[in-house]
């Protein structure tokens, strides 16, 4: 086992990988509660959605850990599930069964692109300066997610965002957790993020901010209402798929998942020290894991499955190999039986972990050539748009639009990979027809 996962080469051990896998699970366990609620708005049975969410995470994380050997966990993606429920089903009026078909088609396209090596070629063509920017931008993005979900930052009609009410129990709990995390990190305590999550949850229960779980074990709900329904329109009403609206749905799922995954892979792998010569080893396998997970998830009954940036929490806790992703997958399997206990892992509990990880990820800013304006412009916009636009994909799109322009104007066109020029026009289409 140690040899397969290259423990010696990566300088890791079972304890670090297990702690890292547990930390990643705790940081992303919220999806087991959030995703069913969102998909229920589309008409999907909440119990079935809960099981589908867990199964998609198990399949994706196992494939990523065993095949690609990366400490990256997968689960149905936030943002994509909202697009599924509120835009595709809600605004477009497409039945949720057909929406799942759209996710299925996007997964099949992912697989084809991964088999041909196109996805890996695109990721390796991205200049290292923009990869640093993507990593830092994702760090700011997940920090903002943590601040917002915990109530430390709230919306404001006057200034868009402002500081929240620190007399609110959940917000005060998140601040307490952040203080604990900072103390542990400064003191270089092993597993600091994991300890922070556990201690914060215990404090929340003791103070009454977090309700005690009603039960410990519950029966696994049935997925008969969602399993395989993605294939129904293909087998029984294929003509309903032959329209521009459905095509846009498929392409949107394809585009956002492609670049969300690309950004997450680069960020997590860079933080774990796994990037070699500006390239991701086994990138093709990692991308294939994402593609297979998306396809499997659609057949089980959930929206697009993607790599989770919360995996950086596990990396910060010590994870370096795919064994950590396997641990996370096992915990998702266990969660199927112990779902009531997840009630104590609230956004206030996970917010400190996200904020600390964000702090760690923006360290890549030091590697960007800020003194070269042609580099500074696309890098800065990539970093800025992710949190302000609340989208990893949009941040990448804006930065990648400006990069070939500034490089051409600086007389450095030969340094731009030809794929970056193609992506320039792809992103223009993204903003015209998708955004």
Query: What is the residue-mean pLDDT, rounded to a whole number?
Result: 88
Radius of gyration: 21 Å
Find the count of extended strands (DSSP E, 2+ residues): 4
Question: What string gives the helices and strands in order?
Answer: HHHHEHHHHEEHHHHHEHHHHHH
Overview of the molecule:
InterPro entries: Azg-like, Azg-like_bact_archaea, NCS2. This is Guanine permease. Belongs to the nucleobase:cation symporter-2 (NCS2) (TC 2.A.40) family. Azg-like subfamily. By secondary structure, this protein is mainly α. It folds into two domains: 7-143 and 214-343, no CATH class; 369-435, no CATH class. It has helices at 7-10, 14-28, 31-40, 46-68, 80-91, 96-116, 118-125, 128-149, 169-186, 192-207, 232-236, 244-271, 283-300, 311-316, 322-335, 347-361, 373-388, 392-409, 418-434, and strands at residues 74-76, 153-156, 160-163, 305-307. The strands form two sheets. It has a two-stranded antiparallel sheet with strand order 1-4. It is globular. The model has no long low-confidence stretch (mean pLDDT 88).
Task: Show the helix and strand layout.
Blueprint: H1 7-10, H2 14-28, H3 31-40, H4 46-68, E1 74-76, H5 80-91, H6 96-116, H7 118-125, H8 128-149, E2 153-156, E3 160-163, H9 169-186, H10 192-207, H11 232-236, H12 244-271, H13 283-300, E4 305-307, H14 311-316, H15 322-335, H16 347-361, H17 373-388, H18 392-409, H19 418-434
Antiparallel strand pairs: 1-4, 2-3
